Amino acid sequence: MEYRLATRAAALQPSATIAAAQKARELKAKGVHVYDFSLGEPDFDTPEHIRAAAEKAIREGKTHYTPSSGIPELREAVARRYAERGVRYAPNEVVISNGAKHALHNVFSVLCEPGDVVLVPTPFWVSYKALVQLSGATPRLIETSPASGFKMTPEQLEAALSDDVRAIILNSPCNPSGAVYTRAELLALADVLADTDVVIVSDEIYEDLVYDGDYAPPLASLREDLRQRTVTVSGVSKSFAMTGWRIGWSAAPRPITEAIERLQSQQTSNPCSISQYAALAAVTGEQACVAEMRAEFARRRALVGEKLAAIPGVRATQPDGAFYFFIAIDEYLGRSFGGQPVRNSVEFCTACLEQAHVALVPGIAFGVEGYVRLSFAASVQELEAGLDALGRFLASAS
Ligand code: PMP
Ligand code: GLU
After folding, report:
1. Domain ranges of the chain
2. In the structure, which protein residues have their CB atom closer than 6 angstroms to any atom of ligand 1?
3. Which of 164, 282, 291, 391 has the most C-beta neighbours closer than 10 Å?
4. Quick one: average pLDDT of 99-106?
5. Nearest ligand for residue 19 CA
């Protein structure tokens, strides 16, 4: 029998970050020690009090379906967290989903359709393009450059607007560039949208991972008009080292949230009940664990920055947020490594993994050629030894 897939399924590429991690995993399974800087997930264990809350939920039999948009306590807790950060959401403006990725999928599904355009500044997180395309809409890339710190300017935004633009994605702190927009920069961008109905999808999953201050304020907190036009997406994956629990959320004005509620009730019933109780403990419990993890990431950022500065021919600016270095390797393209020609970032990452056992993600997966992404969510020992291996690999170029 011949299986005919839907066009949208046939066109779908696998997530490049997950694919890079899988390649690293396969090499590890052969007994090779891989310096794995591919996947963006905190290497810390989920804090103990959060795990205890999950165990308690299991013992207390909280193992049934929950309301499809999430348990009321968690929706309220997320709303309170936003109130503390300067923006008021009612609990029924929050939907708990299976991770921020699922929340983003919901948002594009209810907002966009064929004929719509979604603006996506580059470099962008790998899944934005696919999630927009799944909704039928077309991504329109806005190319940023190192000269502007990989931030979109108001002029670029203005030039990219047209009547069919339905939404724009903002991701600050940004994966992969680590760029964090200032308040003034965000307000200048917002001013460009003032007379439009363009919705801002603000992916704030790295909000707690900034290296100047405790958190990046929610975009929606900056001004009332921004609260009206923004869908805020975030979750517990990065702030609380809870990637595997799969809890994220969206917060948006009622008409959008109400559509997401209907979608989610048909699509997934509800996110895992046990994970929701764990996320409740994360959001309402002591926050010292977040600060501790941030401090450790800051130490690693300094270490990686120093090590990279000592390698000739690579350029990277220190990220202001998240846990990635976006490294320019263009000076090494067109050269050979161990007899293997390396013409682009994909070939670079393949050779680097095979020869140096260092796993990175090609820049092209984020829409920018000539770069690779290094995740420093790895131990200091791994980072030190892995960066030495990367340095030796680069020195072997002919
Ligand atoms: N947005 C960005 C920018 C990310 O890096 C990630 C990676 N996890 C996500 C969203 C998805 O987060 P989650 O694991 O909660 O689905
Ligand atoms: N967001 C992480 C990354 O960029 C995890 C993998 C994914 O969901 O893409 O590596």
Report:
1. 7-45+289-395, 48-284
2. 40, 99-101, 125, 171, 175, 203, 205, 235, 237, 243, 248
3. 282
4. 98
5. 2
